């Protein structure tokens, strides 16, 4: 008798699981069920459709060669039967049956299975606020959402995006490119909370503001107002006029089907699975946004809904559902986003998350061009490396700037996955030619700085710590070793200017009885100044990580 595999949910994870199961066991009967009308589409591409970067919405539902991924495609090409506009409402795992409800016909039916794969995905978080039912309030999840947003993104109109996470910022860019006046509201104190640390987020926030977007952080929405259609967003910082409101405050896993069937729900609120993506009930697997996974740095369960993870998990679940032995070990929390002319990404743990997890961390802020500085297309990026001070193991990397951050994030993701140390990363044989990278790649430079810090050769202090010292009135000298011309353009209030080229000749003018913090544009010269002062007998010297380029506070000009 042929094995019967039923997959609930026909987007990234479910479509991948069904297709892979059929490839592994061509004799199996695979049925893919989804409550929606559209299947196997790339929701992550919706902002790019709205902005006309992607011209046709069908491109989000097509293969790389332009074939529409619909029911006919899955039946004829993949050998998978697809049932749409039908919801799985009950899983009877004792009798291996799923009860289905088809709203169009108002009928109930049942389907038997030998193995069941739950790929029920996630749903946008809808805040329970007065006025949330008003027309003109939309999420960014479905093809229907994409079509609506495209219609509403009219130049000159006003949009308010609730949530400054990945999808929120992508939508901010899309609407602004359409000519809308855009405000983004974030409940927490920075953009990309949980992705970037605050000083890195500030660099991105400044760039977003430079494109005419109003950014309101630490701002809570209390309600929406309008006469049938949204007109205002009421917040604790005042009211925002809006013709369109986009809810992008995150997603929650769709677990009601699993919970009602008695499957274990993890501490994250998503379905608990093992490394074979088996649930707590025999012959039922889960994959994608509906299930939790393991963070490879902390070893703890996390909820990290990403299209990339969903596809990889779908493959593993599909293999195992037909008798295979595939493993999904976990993730390191890699994420990346483009907002206007800036790119931002992270992998592993942020400094905040690493400290919260109990690590004694060392950090590096390292700004530099993304390729040889003399190459015409070189653009600046800032790296923030987070490591375990005890053993030099990399814990995380963040990257922000107009240059190529993706390759540094991907190399770091690999290094973190395999528990590499700064010593090991500093010796990686990465590709070099001036159009692609500097002779010493940004990530290798950051690893070398980290090695210098861990060995005691370099002593750094973060811009955040410097600001705290200034606000506390501590008696220390902030020493700017840039050129007079650079100092004239912009400077940190209260800093003393002594250009690096004359530092050796002016040592007698500097106090040996107080702490000196040196800095320059990126703190390469700041580090050189630290070594010069150390050699001259100054003992309490540190350089400011990242220099003035990563100073997230006001500057004198």
TrEMBL record:
Which family would the database say this protein is a member of?
Belongs to the class-III pyridine nucleotide-disulfide oxidoreductase family.
Q: Which organism is it from?
A: Oryzomonas rubra
Q: Which CDD domains match?
A: RHOD (cd00158)
Query: Which domain of life does the UniProt lineage start with?
Result: Bacteria
What high-level taxonomic lineage is stated for the organism? Bacteria, Pseudomonadati, Thermodesulfobacteriota, Desulfuromonadia, Geobacterales
Please name the PANTHER family in this protein's record.
NAD(P)H SULFUR OXIDOREDUCTASE (COA-DEPENDENT), PYRIDINE NUCLEOTIDE-DISULFIDE OXIDOREDUCTASE DOMAIN-CONTAINING
InterPro entries on file: FAD-bd_OxRdtase (IPR050260), FAD/NAD-bd_sf (IPR036188), FAD/NAD-binding_dom (IPR023753), FAD/NAD-linked_Rdtase_dimer_sf (IPR016156), Pyr_nucl-diS_OxRdtase_dimer (IPR004099), Rhodanese-like_dom (IPR001763), Rhodanese-like_dom_sf (IPR036873)
What is this protein called in UniProt? Answer: Pyridine nucleotide-disulfide oxidoreductase
Q: Needs which cofactor?
A: FAD
């Amino acid at each position: 008798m042929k094995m019967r595999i039923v997959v609930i949910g026909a987007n990234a994870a479910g479509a991948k699981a069904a297709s892979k199961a059929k490839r592994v066991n061509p004799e199996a009967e695979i049925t893919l069920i989804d409550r929606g009308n559209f299947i196997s589409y790339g929701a992550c591409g919706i902002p790019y459709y709205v902005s006309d970067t992607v011209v046709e919405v069908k491109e989000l539902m097509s293969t790389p060669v332009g074939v529409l991924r619909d029911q006919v495609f899955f039946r004829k090409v993949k050998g998978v039967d697809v049932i749409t506009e039908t919801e799985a409402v009950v899983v009877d795992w004792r009798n291996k049956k799923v009860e289905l409800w088809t709203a169009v016909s108002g009928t109930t039916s049942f389907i038997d299975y030998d193995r069941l794969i739950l790929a029920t995905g996630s749903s946008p978080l809808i805040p329970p606020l007065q006025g949330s039912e008003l027309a003109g309030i939309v999420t960014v999840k479905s093809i229907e959402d994409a079509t609506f947003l495209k219609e509403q993104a009219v130049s000159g109109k006003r949009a308010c995006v609730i949530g400054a996470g990945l999808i929120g910022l992508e939508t901010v860019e899309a609407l602004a490119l359409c000519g809308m006046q855009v405000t983004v509201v974030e409940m927490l104190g920075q953009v990309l909370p949980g992705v970037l640390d605050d000083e890195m987020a500030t660099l991105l926030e400044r760039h977003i503001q430079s494109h005419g977007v109003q950014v309101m952080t630490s701002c809570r929405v209390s309600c929406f107002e309008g006469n049938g259609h949204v007109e205002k967003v009421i917040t604790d910082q005042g009211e925002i006029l809006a013709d369109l409101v986009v809810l992008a405050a995150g997603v929650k896993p769709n677990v009601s089907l699993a919970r009602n069937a008695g499957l274990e729900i993890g501490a994250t609120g998503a379905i608990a699975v093992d490394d074979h993506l088996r649930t707590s009930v025999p012959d039922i697997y889960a994959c994608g946004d509906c299930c939790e996974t393991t963070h490879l740095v902390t070893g703890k369960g996390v909820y990290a809904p990403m299209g990339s993870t969903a596809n990889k998990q779908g493959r593993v679940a599909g293999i195992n559902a037909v008798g295979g032995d595939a493993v999904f070990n976990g993730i390191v929390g890699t994420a990346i986003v483009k907002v206007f002319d800036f790119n931002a990404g992270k992998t592993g743990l942020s400094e905040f998350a690493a400290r919260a997890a109990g690590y004694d961390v060392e950090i590096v802020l390292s700004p530099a061009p993304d390729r040889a500085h003399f190459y015409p297309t070189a653009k600046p990026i800032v790296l923030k490396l987070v490591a375990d001070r005890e053993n030099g193991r990399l814990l995380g990397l963040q990257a922000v700037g107009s240059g190529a951050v993706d390759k540094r994030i991907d190399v770091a993701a690999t290094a973190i996955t395999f528990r590499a140390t700064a010593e090991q990363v500093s010796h990686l044989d990465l590709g070099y030619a001036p159009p692609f990278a500097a002779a010493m790649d940004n990530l290798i430079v950051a690893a070398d700085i980290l090695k210098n810090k861990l060995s005691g050769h370099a002593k750094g202090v973060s811009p955040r710590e410097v600001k705290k010292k200034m606000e506390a009135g501590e008696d220390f000298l902030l020493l700017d070793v840039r050129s007079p011309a650079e100092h004239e353009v912009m400077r940190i209030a209260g800093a003393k200017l002594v250009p690096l080229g004359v530092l050796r000749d002016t040592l007698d003018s500097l106090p040996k009885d107080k702490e000196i913090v040196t800095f320059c544009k990126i703190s390469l010269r700041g580090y050189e100044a630290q070594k010069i002062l150390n050699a001259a007998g100054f003992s309490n010297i540190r350089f400011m990580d990242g220099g003035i380029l990563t100073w997230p506070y006001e500057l004198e000009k």
